[in-house]
Amino acid sequence: DVQLVESGGGSVQAGGSLRLSCAASGYTYNTCSMGWFRQAPGKEREGVAAIRRYSGTTFYADSVKGRFTISQDNAKTTLYLQMNSLKPEDTAVYYCAASIPCLPNWNETRTYTYWGQGTQVTVS
Protein backbone atom coordinates (compact mmCIF):
# COMPACT_ATOMS: atom_id res chain seq x y z
CA ASP A 1 0.00 0.00 0.00
CA VAL A 2 0.87 3.65 -0.36
CA GLN A 3 0.06 6.24 2.26
CA LEU A 4 -0.37 9.90 1.30
CA VAL A 5 -0.51 12.84 3.69
CA GLU A 6 -1.18 16.36 2.44
CA SER A 7 -0.20 19.59 4.17
CA GLY A 8 0.11 23.28 3.40
CA GLY A 9 -3.50 24.30 2.94
CA GLY A 10 -4.92 27.42 4.47
CA SER A 11 -6.64 30.73 3.82
CA VAL A 12 -5.22 33.35 1.50
CA GLN A 13 -6.38 36.47 -0.25
CA ALA A 14 -6.94 36.52 -3.99
CA GLY A 15 -3.66 36.97 -5.81
CA GLY A 16 -1.72 35.21 -3.08
CA SER A 17 0.22 31.96 -3.10
CA LEU A 18 0.24 28.64 -1.28
CA ARG A 19 2.39 25.56 -1.55
CA LEU A 20 0.86 22.18 -0.89
CA SER A 21 2.93 19.14 0.00
CA CYS A 22 2.10 15.46 -0.13
CA ALA A 23 4.31 13.01 1.73
CA ALA A 24 4.21 9.51 0.26
CA SER A 25 5.23 6.38 2.14
CA GLY A 26 4.93 2.65 1.68
CA TYR A 27 5.39 0.89 -1.65
CA THR A 28 5.86 4.05 -3.68
CA TYR A 29 8.46 2.60 -6.05
CA ASN A 30 5.82 1.05 -8.32
CA THR A 31 3.63 4.12 -8.69
CA CYS A 32 3.72 5.65 -12.16
CA SER A 33 1.90 8.92 -11.62
CA MET A 34 0.95 11.24 -8.84
CA GLY A 35 -1.58 13.98 -9.06
CA TRP A 36 -3.50 16.73 -7.35
CA PHE A 37 -7.28 16.89 -7.42
CA ARG A 38 -9.68 19.33 -5.83
CA GLN A 39 -13.30 19.28 -4.83
CA ALA A 40 -15.39 22.34 -4.12
CA PRO A 41 -18.71 22.09 -2.23
CA GLY A 42 -21.42 20.68 -4.43
CA LYS A 43 -19.03 19.90 -7.27
CA GLU A 44 -17.30 16.80 -8.55
CA ARG A 45 -13.67 16.12 -7.79
CA GLU A 46 -11.55 17.46 -10.64
CA GLY A 47 -7.98 16.92 -11.74
CA VAL A 48 -5.67 19.87 -11.23
CA ALA A 49 -2.23 18.57 -12.17
CA ALA A 50 -0.27 15.35 -12.42
CA ILE A 51 3.30 14.18 -12.91
CA ARG A 52 4.83 11.00 -14.24
CA ARG A 53 7.21 10.09 -11.42
CA TYR A 54 10.09 8.78 -13.51
CA SER A 55 9.90 10.84 -16.71
CA GLY A 56 8.89 14.07 -14.98
CA THR A 57 6.22 14.76 -17.59
CA THR A 58 3.58 17.08 -16.19
CA PHE A 59 -0.08 17.70 -16.97
CA TYR A 60 -2.31 20.61 -16.00
CA ALA A 61 -5.95 21.54 -16.14
CA ASP A 62 -6.56 24.53 -18.38
CA SER A 63 -7.92 26.48 -15.42
CA VAL A 64 -4.57 26.41 -13.60
CA LYS A 65 -2.01 26.50 -16.43
CA GLY A 66 0.50 29.27 -15.88
CA ARG A 67 -0.49 29.65 -12.22
CA PHE A 68 0.15 26.25 -10.63
CA THR A 69 3.27 24.11 -10.78
CA ILE A 70 3.49 20.44 -9.81
CA SER A 71 6.84 19.02 -8.79
CA GLN A 72 8.47 16.30 -6.72
CA ASP A 73 11.60 16.02 -4.65
CA ASN A 74 14.64 14.08 -5.85
CA ALA A 75 13.71 11.06 -3.76
CA LYS A 76 10.25 11.08 -5.36
CA THR A 77 8.63 10.75 -1.96
CA THR A 78 7.18 14.23 -1.67
CA LEU A 79 4.85 15.85 -4.16
CA TYR A 80 4.33 19.59 -4.31
CA LEU A 81 1.81 21.97 -5.79
CA GLN A 82 2.90 25.58 -5.96
CA MET A 83 -0.18 27.73 -6.41
CA ASN A 84 0.26 31.35 -7.45
CA SER A 85 -2.19 34.09 -8.43
CA LEU A 86 -4.90 32.29 -6.51
CA LYS A 87 -8.52 33.07 -7.30
CA PRO A 88 -11.68 32.57 -5.22
CA GLU A 89 -12.70 29.82 -7.62
CA ASP A 90 -9.63 27.85 -6.53
CA THR A 91 -11.28 27.35 -3.14
CA ALA A 92 -11.66 23.62 -2.54
CA VAL A 93 -10.35 20.65 -0.64
CA TYR A 94 -7.18 19.54 -2.41
CA TYR A 95 -6.30 15.84 -2.58
CA CYS A 96 -3.08 14.08 -3.44
CA ALA A 97 -3.39 10.82 -5.39
CA ALA A 98 -1.11 8.07 -6.63
CA SER A 99 -1.55 5.71 -9.56
CA ILE A 100 0.26 2.41 -10.08
CA PRO A 101 -0.36 1.97 -13.83
CA CYS A 102 0.62 4.62 -16.39
CA LEU A 103 -2.82 5.42 -17.74
CA PRO A 104 -3.46 8.25 -20.20
CA ASN A 105 -6.38 9.81 -18.37
CA TRP A 106 -4.42 11.71 -15.75
CA ASN A 107 -7.39 13.85 -14.74
CA GLU A 108 -9.84 11.04 -14.00
CA THR A 109 -10.30 9.88 -10.42
CA ARG A 110 -10.59 6.24 -11.54
CA THR A 111 -6.96 6.37 -12.69
CA TYR A 112 -5.72 6.62 -9.11
CA THR A 113 -5.56 3.91 -6.49
CA TYR A 114 -4.39 5.80 -3.43
CA TRP A 115 -5.69 9.06 -1.98
CA GLY A 116 -4.76 11.40 0.82
CA GLN A 117 -7.22 12.83 3.31
CA GLY A 118 -7.29 16.28 1.72
CA THR A 119 -6.32 19.78 2.77
CA GLN A 120 -8.56 22.85 2.62
CA VAL A 121 -7.60 25.84 0.50
CA THR A 122 -9.73 28.95 0.88
CA VAL A 123 -9.21 32.02 -1.31
CA SER A 124 -11.15 35.18 -0.48
* Rg of Cα set: 13 Å
Helix proportion: under 10%
Sheet of most strands = 7 strands, mixed
Instruction: Please give the oligomerization state of what you see.
Output: single chain
Mean pLDDT: 94
Structural class based on helices, strands and sheet pairing: mainly beta
Descriptive report:
- The protein has 124 residues and is mostly beta strands.
- 0% of the residues lie in helices and 49% in strands.
- It is built from no helices and eleven strands.
- Strands 2, 4, 5, 6, 9, 10 and 11 form a seven-stranded mixed β-sheet that branches. A four-stranded antiparallel β-sheet has the order 1-3-8-7, with no helix packed on it.
- Strand 5 and strand 6 form a beta hairpin.
- The radius of gyration is 13 Å and the shape is globular.
Summarize the model shown.
By secondary structure, the chain is mostly beta strands. It has strands at residues 2-7, 10-12, 18-26, 33-39, 46-52, 58-60, 68-72, 78-83, 92-99, 114-115, 119-123.
Architecture blueprint of SSEs:
Blueprint: E1 2-7, E2 10-12, E3 18-26, E4 33-39, E5 46-52, E6 58-60, E7 68-72, E8 78-83, E9 92-99, E10 114-115, E11 119-123
Parallel strand pairs: 2-11
Antiparallel strand pairs: 1-3, 3-8, 4-5, 4-9, 5-6, 7-8, 9-10, 9-11
